[in-house]
TrEMBL record:
It comes from Agromyces intestinalis. It is found in: Cell membrane; Membrane. It is a multi-pass membrane protein. GO terms for molecular function: ABC-type transporter activity. The lineage of its organism: Bacteria, Bacillati, Actinomycetota, Actinomycetes, Micrococcales. This is Transport permease protein. Keywords: Antibiotic resistance, Cell membrane, Membrane, Transmembrane, Transmembrane helix, Transport.
């Protein structure tokens, strides 16, 4: 009698999936946003340029012109002063400086290898860019608040809607557009050169875009060039509530177009940087 050989087959192990589950919103979350914001607030150099520089520029350039009117109505009779005009321009300038610096700080992350670590996460490139843009915008808000407080403390009087509309325009447009510009430069330029490049770009765009003197006073050729710069549309929209100028939709189209260009370039640069082996 032969014993029947019995074989036992071990159960097949569960198949392991190597696919990463993509979290909601591409990985965007408030915790990551909070970390980004805290890192930026710890940078004393950034805070110095965000709060001190635009206020100092307003006090040096705008405050001495507090009694000069930008229109036919004298300041003493309720007209808007040149100081108010410059205050808004400096708020925009402070916003784009702080936003660009916040964005370009990504170059430090690249040098430390942080962007390569993001390859191990399911973070969507667009969600990563959005997180940094929002953090940069919140930092840019400090520049507007600081400059407006300085203006109010030195005698500038505007209607509540003028303060609000000018501040919102400077913040939403200026911070969004120039945070993405800073991110783009930060992903493309080596860390040791990023600050120099972004500072040169911002100063040049601010001069040619009419933040330091009216576009109308420029040469005709420069006026045509200025209309296509990202600063021009933002500055015109932010100053419109105090100058009484009707909103030109080309200004808004200008800002939106540059924002789209910078976002597209930043997403492309982010993907290229995180895919490097």
């Amino acid at each position: 009698m032969t014993a029947a050989a019995t074989t036992t087959t071990a159960p097949a192990p569960d198949r392991v999936s190597l696919d990463r589950r993509v979290p909601p919103f591409g990985g965007f979350n408030l915790t990551f946003l909070g970390i980004e914001l805290k890192r930026k607030l710890r940078n004393r150099r950034t805070l110095l340029f965000t709060i001190v520089f635009p206020v100092a520029m307003y006090l040096l350039i705008g405050y001495p012109l507090r009694d000069e009117s930008i229109g036919d109505v004298p300041v003493a009779q309720g007209g808007v002063s040149v100081a108010a005009y410059i205050m808004v321009s400096m708020a925009v300038y402070g916003t784009i400086i702080s936003a660009t610096a916040a964005g370009s700080a990504v170059s430090v992350e690249r040098a430390q290898g942080w962007t390569r670590q993001l390859r191990l996460t399911p973070l969507n490139p667009l969600a990563g860019v959005a997180t940094k843009v929002i953090a940069g915008m919140l930092l840019g808000l400090l520049a507007i608040v600081a400059t407006f407080i300085a203006g109010a403390a030195t005698g500038i009087r505007l209607a509540p809607e003028q303060w609000i509309l000018s501040g919102i325009a400077a913040w939403l447009l200026g911070a969004a557009v120039f945070t993405t510009l800073g991110l783009l430069v930060g992903y493309l330029v080596p860390g040791e050169n990023t600050a120099q490049v972004t500072n040169l770009v911002v100063v040049f765009l601010s001069f040619i875009g009419g933040l330091f003197y009216p576009i109308d006073s420029m040469a005709p050729v420069l006026q045509q060039v200025a209309a296509f710069t990202p600063v021009s549309g933002i500055g015109q929209i932010a100053r419109a509530p105090i100058t009484g100028t009707d909103l030109d939709w080309l200004w808004l189209a200008n800002a939106i177009a540059w924002l789209a260009i910078f976002v597209a370039g930043t997403v492309w640069a982010f993907r290229r940087d995180t895919k490097r082996g």
